[in-house]
Specification:
Strand content: 5-15%
Number of strands: 5
CATH architecture: 3-Layer(aba) Sandwich
Number of domains: 1
CATH topology: Rossmann fold
CATH class: Alpha Beta
Helix content: 40-55%
Order of helices and strands: EHEHHEHHEHEH
Strand order of the largest sheet: 2-3-1-4-5
Radius of gyration: 17 Å
Largest sheet: 5 strands, parallel
Bound molecules: thymidine-5'-diphosphate
CATH superfamily: P-loop containing nucleotide triphosphate hydrolases
Length: about 230
């Protein structure tokens, strides 16, 4: 299937969270997203925001159990691409229902390390699971909830990670060609959803990247307060 056809994104989802603000971080391994998510959470808390921080897959006890199924298995043959897609979506369904939606309804800022865009990049662009199926499964698992703002982090225009470290799990063990497709997936998503997704080049270092992210978040929270 041709993943570059922009029309394949026809199954887009709408953000529909009520009072809160939902931010996700995306990127390949060692892109620095977890460090940046932590820094943003501290910064928001110092400013008096109530923040819920979580990660995918995981964040709930069911999600953590699914996480070990997904990442700890050493043999690629033991998990089909469809099974992998559904397991990520199952962990996500639990997280959305028990943690993300209640936090948003209570007016919190939710900061999530990975969300639906990871499934589009890794399972659809990376593995070749049809894009429309990945959207449909995730529309169902999240009941159409998408972030208000997503940061895709990476080094340079092609979102390279700073290094390929020795693989620590089944997905990290995939070859470089796979990761090239994943990075292309993120870039296609960013082109398709420019209002939601901001690609941040991390080459300037941790502090500079954190500054860019803070300015963006501050502006969006301000817009939200003023109702625009
Ligand atoms: P993790 O240890 O959290 O890695 P990272 O620090 O890179 O986020 O492992 C999560 C792995 O699962 C990571 O390789 C990306 C992959 N993943 C998917 O393939 N699809 C998904 O929908 C999600 C949420 C993660």
């Amino acid at each position: 299937m041709d993943h570059n056809r922009e029309e394949s994104f026809r199954c887009e989802m709408i953000s529909s969270n009520n009072n809160g603000f939902f931010i996700s971080f995306e990127g390949v391994e060692t892109s620095g997203k977890t460090t940046q998510a932590d820094l943003l959470v501290s910064w928001l808390q110092v400013r008096g925001h109530r923040v819920v921080q979580t990660r995918e897959p995981g964040g709930t006890s069911l999600g953590e159990a699914i996480r070990s199924l997904l990442l700890d298995m050493s043999d690629e043959q033991e998990m089909s691409h469809r099974a992998e897609t559904l397991l990520f979506a199952a962990a996500r369904a639990q997280l959305v229902q028990t943690m993300i939606r209640p936090a948003l309804a209570a007016g919190h800022v939710v900061v999530c390390d990975r969300y639906v865009d990871s499934s589009v990049a890794y399972q659809s662009f990376g593995l070749g699971v049809p894009l429309s199926a990945v959207w449909d499964i995730n529309k169902f698992s999240t009941e159409d909830l998408m972030p208000d703002l997503t940061f895709v982090l990476g080094r340079g225009a092609d979102l390279k990670s700073s290094e390929r470290r020795p693989p620590t799990d089944r997905i990290e063990a995939r070859e470089e060609r796979y990761y090239r497709r994943v990075r292309n997936g993120y870039l296609s998503l960013a082109r398709r959803f420019p209002e939601r997704i901001v690609v941040v080049d991390t080459l300037g270092g941790v502090r500079r990247t954190a500054g860019i992210i803070r300015r963006m978040v501050a502006a969006r929270l301000k817009d939200r307060q003023s109702g625009s």
